[in-house]
What does this fold into?
Amino acid sequence: MTSGSSSVGTAFITQDLALPPSGRELEAEIRHLKRKLNAVILAHFYQDSEIQEVADFIGDSLQLAQQAARTAADVIVFAGVHFMAETAKILNPARRVLLPDLNAGCSLAESCPPHLFRPFREHYADHLVISYINCSAEIKAMSDVICTSSNADRIIAQVPREQPILFGPDRNLGNYLIRKTGRPMRLWQGFCIVHETFSEQKLLRLKLRHPSAQILAHPECEERVLRHADYIGSTTGLLNYVRESPGREFIIATEPGIIYQMKKACPEKTFIPAPPENSCACNQCPHMRLNTLEKLWLCMKNGAPEISMDEDLRLRALRPLQRMLDLSA
Ligand code: SF4
It folds into this structure.
């Protein structure tokens, strides 16, 4: 379950007990409901391919926030995790925001509980707080500006050099940005369970078997993985890189959902997911995978679960988010 900043908007949810249609019929039903509700479906790159197929827009956190900010739809169906749907609600108080599974949380957002972050932030009161978008609305409300992995270095570059910075919640992204920008920053020690799962040893063995493959990594990965990467970037950055690279083979160190779009863009190239430490599917985000096509259909049919939020909290979270959008325009 995610942080308690927002909740199911309806006190009583009428669950539809009828069996959902399947296959093409299910997709057709979703498209029909989309028209009926004047809804837009936004999906993150880490969602299953079948969800990406019915989405109106697929993107990374920054693109989805930008898209949510400019939509004219009455209903936003967010195929992603809780903090993303919450972000859409912060930007769109008048629109209904639905999340197919309210339990689709985020280990990184949960590694930064507001009751612990508040005293940390107060202890460094002279610091400017830059928070990665993967955090709850309460953490956003305690921040000066939000960033994503696409724009973090550009935002840091706009902070005067004498201004100390506190960065949270992701320690790996924070350490990567310190190395990249040369700016010292005080870090919150949060992390994503998916991006800390990759095994350096297995990655090197895989590289020995595929010597011409380039290693592409998301900056939420640990330094021991990032130091072997040929390219480090956001999910959109990784996607653009494979499109433009003359390379034919790539090892991908992030959630493997992105590989669906990579294969679509470059069917002639080969993409190999970076191996996790254990023989498990831990490189798949368990939170993202809670959303299914059936739950997407059900949430549109029932109008729930819906994200709702206290207006005072929303306004405090909006300021740093809007600052990010203005700085990224
Ligand atoms: S991959 Fe990590 S950071 Fe992204 S939603 Fe899942 S748990 Fe959160």
